[in-house]
Amino acid sequence: MNRFEDKVVIITGGGSGLGRAAAKQVAVEGGKLVLVDLNAKGLEESKQEILTAAPQAEIETIEANVANEEDVKKYVAFAVEKFGKIDGFFNNAGIEGKQNLTEDFGIEEFQRVVDINLNGVFYGMKHVLKVMKEQGQGSIVNTASVGGIRGVGNQSGYAASKHGVVGLTRNSGIEYGQFGVSIKAIAPGAIMTPMVEGSLKQMGGDNWEEAGKEFVSVNPMKRFGKPEEVGYLVAFLLSNQADFINATVVPIDGGQSYKY
C-alpha cells in the first residue's frame, strides 16, 4: 500500500520505540517524515533504520524538547518550511517517570512528567492544529496509555498525565472534526520498548525480566506487544482510511484494559 504517498507526517519521540516503529511503517507506505526527539543519536539511528526499510523515503530530523513551547513552534515551522504542509501528526513523545506512592511522589518529578506527557502533547496539538485547520484536513494520533483509561499503581504522575491526554483528544476531536481534522489516541499496554524496559528495571532491579513476566500476567495474551504492532495501528489511524475515527481512544494492550 501507498497510503502516505505525497503525505507529510511529524512524529515526536521519533528516536526510539513506538515513534521509530510508526515512522518506519509510514515511510514504507510512501510518507515523508519529520522526526522529532531530544536524542540526536536516536534520531540518526531511526533515520538509518528507516532508510534500510524504505530507501526512497524523505526524512528530516530535528532536535526539540516537546515540553518547551518554543521548541514545538520550531519543529512545526520546520516541517512546513521543508514540505509545505502537515498531513499527519503522531504526538508520541513521553516518559514513564519515577515510581512511588502518591504521598511520596515528589512535586518536581510530578511536574516533569506532566510537562512532557501532557503539556508537550497540548503544545503539539495547539500548533499543528493551526496548520491543519488552515489546510482543511489532517490527522492527529496522540499516545495515551492503558494508564490513561485505568489506574497504574505507583505512577501517579504518569497516570494523571495520560488521563489528561485522553481528555485533550476527546475534546479537541469534537472541536476540530468540522474542519476536516480527526484526532484520536492510542492506549498501549505492555509494549517492549526502551521506556517499558526502564519501568521494569525500576520495579525489579536486576530481576527486571522476572518483573516483566509478572507485568504481562495481567494481559490475557500473556506476552509483551511489539513496537511494530503499534506502528501498524498508528499508520492506519493516520491514514485517510481512518478519517471517520475521531475523538476516541483505541487500546492496543492484548485485552488488559478490559480484564477484571
Describe the fold and architecture.
The chain has 260 residues and is α/β, with parallel strands linked by helices. It has one domain: NAD(P)-binding Rossmann-like Domain (Rossmann fold). Helices cover 47% and strands 15% of the residues. A seven-stranded parallel beta sheet has the order 3-2-1-4-5-6-7, with helices on both faces. It comes from Cytobacillus kochii.
Topology:
Elements: E1 8-12, H1 17-28, E2 32-37, H2 40-53, E3 59-63, H3 69-83, E4 88-91, H4 107-135, E5 138-143, H5 156-176, E6 181-188, H6 194-204, H7 208-216, H8 227-238, E7 248-252
Parallel strand pairs: 1-2, 1-4, 2-3, 4-5, 5-6, 6-7
Domain Ketoreductase: 7-189
InterPro entries: KR_dom (IPR057326), NAD(P)-bd_dom_sf (IPR036291), SDR_fam (IPR002347)
Protein name: Oxidoreductase
Report helical residue fraction.
40-55%
Uncertain spans: none
What is the global morphology?
globular
The CATH topology label is: Rossmann fold
Care to count the β-strands?
A: 7
In short:
The protein has eight helices and seven strands; from the N terminus they run βαβαβαβαβαβαααβ.
